[in-house]
Amino acid sequence: MNASQPSPLELRLSAYVDAQTGDGDWHDVEELLVNDPQVRALHDALRHGSEIGRRAFDDMLKEPVPLDLVRSIKNAPLPRRAVRLPQAPRSGFSLKPSGVRTFIACLSLFVLGGAIGYMLGSRPAAPQGRVAIAAPAQAARDWLDDIIAQYRLYARQTNHLTEIPAERAADILEWLTTNTGISFRIPDLQGSGLVFQGARMFSAGGTPAGQLFYRRIDGDADGDVIAITFTKTRPAGNRSLEEIRNETGIVTWVTPLATYMVVGPSSAADLDDIAAKAAGLI
Amino acid sequence: MSQPSPSTDIRRDLVALLPRLRRFAMTLTGDASDADQLVRGAAMRAIQKSHHWKGEGRLENWLFSIMRTIWSDEARKRRKAEPAGTDAGSAPERKKTASAVLSMPEGLASAFLLTDVEGFTCQEAATILGIPADQLAARLCAARLGLSSLNAVTTERRA
């Protein structure tokens, strides 16, 4: 089977099969397909390969799933949830209204509803506009969204991951400490398989935030990127949180001076461990 | 592509997705028993971390990412534990048992499955596999060409 790197023409045709080709290239490829029989044959081969693969993978779904695998998942214990404390027993009151009582209750609700409707209807229409304008503000992004957006933007970069590379550690410390107002150390997380790559500074919710980037040592150069971020902004209720937003995991902890976050792909199950280690080292 | 709606018990969704999870695991491991182990491990991790899943997007996206991470971690541990060249003898054996699709060079089957079969966009598939989008596109193209030539060889043999 051919494992070599596809040629630029093969890549263009493959993108054309996926309809991922840009407008300009689309016309070029269509022209090639009309005029060049070899290109047409290559295009057919790509489509044919796609069809064969699809059929083969569809057949794999027909294989029976081992029963012990199904059982082990069905019977797996769920994570512990908050315990609900027992409440005081309810009194033995039971609601059994008579016909007259039901009629009086319905009449009262009708009168009450009419009164509320009359009052609302007699108010000027101006506040509706204000509500409509205020609604998007309530749904506005918070500063944690800025931090996740920043991570997602740079975690995919291979050549421009950081502003200051890891080799200039003293520069990173001075620059981020001065601008964020938070003194810190660069944690050595090699024990967790993470190698420090460098740092960036950005604005999250209008406040400067420092971000230290680490890459997993994966054997190849495409390891996951994990970021440690710190800012003076406080999360609501000053509480630490652990959640996934936009396919990105985030674990935070709060100290009297700053809020720290470990940000990584949602599939990274060890973010809390990394946070625990980083909290002791930063 | 059918999408299971997020239910209160993630175990039910996991069981419904099992055939597809196994299929993806097969593209990573190339071996049925390793694939089952991988699916079991990923399912347990997903159950323990189910409070992280807020029902946004496709559940498979999250589960496939977990599987890929576990498999990468295990591969890294194996590489550290085994001296270079130890695995050379087991590769042909694995190829014998795996189907022709799964015997494609490492990474091609996963890229092909996620995009051409599971219907993820190139960017989504690249994120799941932890690789840049252009590398995903190259793997997808190589997989299509490989599958096409594979069929040609089979047809020639039959003739």
What does this structure look like?
The complex is a heterodimer of chains A (282) and B (159). By secondary structure, chain A is of the alpha+beta class. Among the domains of chain A are: 8-60; 143-281, MucB/RseB, C-terminal domain (Phosphorylase Kinase, domain 1). Chain A is 45% helix and 17% strand. Chain A is built from nine helices and seven strands. A seven-stranded antiparallel beta sheet of chain A has the order 1-2-3-4-7-6-5, with helices on both faces. The longest helix of chain A is centred in the first third of the chain and has 24 residues, at 37-60. Chain A starts with 7 loop residues before the first helix and ends with a helix. Chain B is globular, with a radius of gyration of 17 Å. Chain B folds into two domains: 1-90, Rna Polymerase Sigma Factor, Chain: A, CATH 1.10.1740; 104-159, Arc Repressor Mutant, subunit A, CATH 1.10.10.10. The longest helix of chain B has 26 residues, at 133-158. With 159 residues, chain B is mostly helical. Mean pLDDT of chain B is 80; it is low at 1-6 and 85-98. Helices cover 70% and strands 0% of the residues of chain B. Classes of the chains: A alpha+beta (282), B mainly alpha (159). Chains A and B meet through helix 1, helix 3, helix 4 and strand 5 of A and helix 1, helix 2, helix 3, helix 5 and helix 7 of B.
